[in-house]
Amino acid sequence: MVSSSHPAASFAGARVLAAGGNAVDATLAMAAITWLTLPGQCGIGGDAFAVVREPDGRVWTVGGSGFGPDGGTAEFYRDRGLSAIPLDGALGVAVPGAPAALSALHAHGAGMALGELWEPAVRMAHHGPPCSAKTATDVHEALDAVRADPELAAVYAPSGRPPPVGERLRQPDLARTIRRLADDPADFYTGEFAERAVAMLRAAGAPFSGDEWAAAAVVEPEPAIAGGYAGATIHQTPLPTPGWMVLQQAALCDGALGGPWLGAEAIDRMARAARLAFQDRFALCGSDGSGPREVLDRNRIERQRRSLDARAEERMSIAVRGGDTTCTVAVDADGRAVSFIHSLGFTFGAKVVVPGTGVVLNNRLGRGAYLVPGHPNEVAPRRKPLHTLNAWIATGAAGELLALGGIPGGDGQVQWNMQLISHLFDHGLDAAQTVSAPRFTVFPGSDADVVGQPDELRVEATVPDETRTRLQAMGHRVVVQPPFGAGGSAQVICRDGRGVLSGAADPRQEGVAIGVD
């Protein structure tokens, strides 16, 4: 079974499984198709992470997150009068990690050649995928920036307006890049592509040396980080991702959400646990530090649980932001499972294309690195910025696969993943009920670019009136969003005790789940 946020990607993964490929093969095929069908959300120039469970129960991860520039000292940006790293343009770019992560995923788990898996994406780029509803919306929201980059404009706004849904978006340059990347992923970091990208970025004022690109070329598998929840083990992506934040919330909520499903008490507990996690992230965590170990210390968790029980935690105001990201999940006949997520940062990343390649570059440095003096996440040469992306797999007492999932949405991800896990393991919801359940989001979070926003608890209108009233009485400033208006596009696959798979894609976007017999 596979599930993704676009039908063409899901069908690509299902075709691979039907042809005898495994879950890693299906994931790689879906990744390439989403570069074309959801180009505002992901791309070759972005980052990517995966959690893989092998049939023998072993769990491993790959993390593709690139370095900031070698000349990217905090003083470099402050000397230019900046209080935050820009989100658009060359200064917001980090070395893309996605090609290295996909290469590692292929080398350590695939059964089919990368060229074979990505040839359908090459053909699609040549012919032009029909513009999806999500892409049309993304172009509309980023239209001024899209128009400002000649190569983005040529594909997504040739008439100066967003493309209508269904219009073919032909990208021959990107087709050539995908084929070349399949033949030699290292070229992205040490060959002609790298030289072209670094030259463009340096000309635009970004302090890249080129050496940081070469240093990002190799990604090795890492162990997952794990924690318990409701008798299951939740396996998550390690730093620089916020996977630890999901484990922290799980530890703070385990055994405390057994009341009515999405009752005021449950929402209140999860919201306050999320706020604590964001406070800890901002105060303690950089991409290369020991903050998560301190945060997940058992004694510290117990102190925070007592604080939540007494409703005595303090709050701070750091604004949470959304983000454009997409995820896929896949399980093969042998029980191998992959939860995968990739992103450009915000919509169309830094809104710049490497000339002649079709590759849009991310804005992850602007998104995830701080200019706060002395902060553990302060920008520094050759330092990876903190990430919003994370993915998870849940296993049982004997290591058996129970479920896997993921959801895009910036700092919403760590909150919504906790909600998915609670729906599944506290209340026994099926996959479809889980991804379509009412969603809520605490603001603020801990993104780098905005500080000081007022405290809010944003809830979809499908949360009942009486629950919202009760939450207000409990001290939350409740802001109501439209039904299915919170954001995110969750993907979940569950496996029951008989080995039967059930999957679902979030109705908030265009995705589908497909099973292969």
TrEMBL record:
<dbReference type="InterPro" id="IPR043137">
    <property type="entry name" value="GGT_ssub_C"/>
</dbReference>
<dbReference type="InterPro" id="IPR029055">
    <property type="entry name" value="Ntn_hydrolases_N"/>
</dbReference>
<dbReference type="Pfam" id="PF01019">
    <property type="entry name" value="G_glu_transpept"/>
</dbReference>
<protein>
    <submittedName>
        <fullName>Gamma-glutamyltranspeptidase</fullName>
    </submittedName>
</protein>
<dbReference type="InterPro" id="IPR052896">
    <property type="entry name" value="GGT-like_enzyme"/>
</dbReference>
